[in-house]
């Protein structure tokens, strides 16, 4: 069998179309959703990600502003700016691009953001609401994974979902989303990680396998049974002398081998990545709706 390759780009375009309609309804009421994006330093990957987010904001009609601080900016100066943004009604969402320089504590920065404007959904208040099943917003990448499954016809309901990775950004919040007693969730979820012995014993049990390990081609064909739906969250740079950049992007799974065995699989690039950006726009629009009373 040859797997269905799920295009995250196509699904993201579909979502952006829906968001444009929601933005138009807000604009009719005099409300323009606003997103403030803060970067400290000139990390090339961060610059690239923020450009993508800016383009996506423009596409859906969200006003966005990028604020850049030098690498050596004191933590206090960053916190002061976040406080200003918290009180600026022009912005409904605030995003601080990670990673931050070593002298800045990311947890302190995240907790300084008003939970109502926390469009990354990293604030402890929003994490807690997610876990108890009463979320204000959903974290962008896990929400993107969930939307991929729902919109592609692979609802997690009643399925055994195996998540490889337990990060606060991907694995844990995805578990919290899928375990809820609600339509589109109701999954039985196993979370595996770096200390899981005999990882393949668990991955072979999956109806849906989500991989967010951060290691190229960590999941091989022998670790997956036929007919599994595979969502590859990983983005890894590997050397490739045929590319102008000298590298290419690959996921955490051996895509070429799994495409001959899985029921469906997401590619890297073009899978989860575009959905993550689309979900950021979703959160910004949702935040604008709630803060304006239009929800």
Strand content is: 15-25%
Count of beta strands: 11
The CATH topology annotation of the largest domain reads as Rossmann fold
> What is the oligomeric state here?
single chain
The strand order across the widest sheet is: 1-11-8-7-5-6
Domains, number: 2
Order of helices and strands: EHEHEHEHHHEHEHEEEEHEH
- Count up the helices: 10
**Major beta sheet summary:** 6 strands, parallel
CATH class of the largest domain: Alpha Beta
Q: Name the poorly predicted regions.
A: none
CATH homology superfamily name of the largest domain: NAD(P)-binding Rossmann-like Domain
How would you briefly describe this protein structure?
The protein is of the alpha/beta class and 295 residues long. The chain has 10 helices and 11 strands. It folds into 2 domains: 87 residues, Rossmann fold (3-Layer(aba) Sandwich), CATH 3.40.50; 134 residues, 3-Layer(aba) Sandwich (Rossmann fold), CATH 3.40.50.720.
Salient structural properties:
single chain; 295 residues; alpha/beta; Rossmann fold; 2 domains; 6-stranded parallel beta sheet; 11 strands; 39% helix; 16% strand
What do you see in this structure?
- The chain has 10 helices and 11 strands.
- Helix content is 39%, strand content 16%.
- Helix 2 crosses helix 10 (272-291).
- The protein has helices spanning 8-28, 44-60, 75-86, 106-112, 124-131, 140-151, 171-178, 199-203, 255-258, 272-291; strands spanning 4-5, 34-40, 63-69, 93-96, 160-164, 188-192, 208-211, 229-232, 236-239, 247-250, 264-265.
- The chain is globular, with a radius of gyration of 19 Å.
- A 6-stranded parallel sheet has the order 1-11-8-7-5-6. It has a 3-stranded parallel sheet with strand order 3-2-4, with helices on both faces.
- The chain is α/β, with parallel strands linked by helices.
- It has 2 domains: 30-116, Rossmann fold, CATH 3.40.50.10860; 140-273, 3-Layer(aba) Sandwich (Rossmann fold), CATH 3.40.50.
């Amino acid at each position: 069998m040859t797997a269905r390759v799920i295009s995250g780009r196509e699904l993201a375009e579909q979502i952006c179309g829906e968001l444009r309609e929601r933005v138009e309804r807000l604009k009719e009421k005099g409300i323009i959703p606003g997103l403030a994006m803060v970067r400290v330093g000139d990390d090339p990957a961060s610059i690239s990600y923020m450009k993508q987010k800016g383009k996506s904001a423009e596409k859906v009609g969200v006003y966005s502003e990028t604020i850049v601080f030098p690498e050596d900016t004191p933590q206090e100066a960053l916190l002061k700016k976040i406080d200003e943004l918290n009180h600026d009604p022009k912005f409904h969402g605030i995003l601080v691009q990670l990673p931050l320089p070593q002298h800045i504590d990311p947890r302190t920065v995240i907790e300084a953001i008003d939970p109502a404007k926390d469009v990354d959904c990293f604030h402890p208040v929003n994490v807690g609401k997610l876990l108890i099943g009463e979320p204000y917003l959903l974290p962008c990448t896990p929400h993107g994974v969930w939307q991929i499954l729902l919109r592609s016809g692979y609802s997690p309901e009643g399925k055994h979902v195996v998540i490889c990775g337990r990060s606060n950004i991907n694995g844990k919040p995805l578990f919290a989303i899928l375990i809820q007693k609600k339509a589109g969730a109701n999954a039985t979820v196993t979370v595996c990680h770096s200390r899981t012995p005999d990882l393949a014993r668990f991955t072979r049990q999956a109806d849906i396998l989500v991989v967010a390990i951060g290691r190229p081609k960590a999941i091989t064909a022998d670790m997956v049974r036929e007919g599994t739906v595979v969502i590859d969250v990983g983005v890894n740079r590997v050397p490739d002398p045929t590319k102008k950049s000298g590298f290419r992007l690959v996921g955490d799974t051996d895509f070429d081998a799994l495409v001959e065995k899985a029921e469906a699989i997401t590619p890297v690039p073009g899978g989860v990545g575009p959905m993550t950006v689309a979900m950021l726009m979703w959160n910004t629009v949702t935040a604008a709706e709630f803060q304006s009373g239009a929800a």
